[in-house]
Amino acid sequence: MARLATVLTLILMFVILAPSAEATWRLDGWDVTRVRNFRVTSSTTSASAQPSSKSLSLLYEVLRDEALSKTPIYLVDLRQESHGFANGVPISWHEEHNHANFGKSVSEIEQDEKDRLSSILGKQVEFVPLGKQDEAEFSKLTMPIEKVQNERHAAESTGFKYIRFSAADMVFPDPAVVDDFIKFYLSLPQKHWLHFHCQAGHGRTTTFLVFYDILTYPDLA
User: Is this structure's pTM higher than 0.90?
Assistant: First the structure.
């Protein structure tokens, strides 16, 4: 028991004394029309990594061809972290574990986004890729910020219906967020198309695709 207590104490000390990741603006992709990790996953769903503002138009056109002509297309944003576009480039505010907005409502998060994006307008800002995949694909980008935009405005101006769920990175979604998604699912018109994305298009995106399949095909093994 004493040995266990010693080990737990050492672990706690390591957690407390370990240096925190420095808060920074994260580079989430390119200012291009390509959409990373894009895939059509069913007759009513698709998924990808974070699109750029330029790629939103192309994405909408592609999905418009996949869906029926009058089917509403929803862009399902699963990112809890504050994010948006600087000169069209997808960016986000990153703090330790990507949990800067942990516990905040969507309206509080979007206000934080508005404030942070406004604060860099007219300034020279450095954006840094984070994570092995992004570091392998992107380089640091420094540029004077001439235009900022949040995703809701960019998506709706393209033609998407925009819906957002505050899903935290690297952890299972909060039960309240899952409940909100179920309510959204039950409110959908019979004909619809959902395009899911998080930052990289892997963890949170796949999780909510599974939720959608469970709700849509409850009797499927």
Answer: no
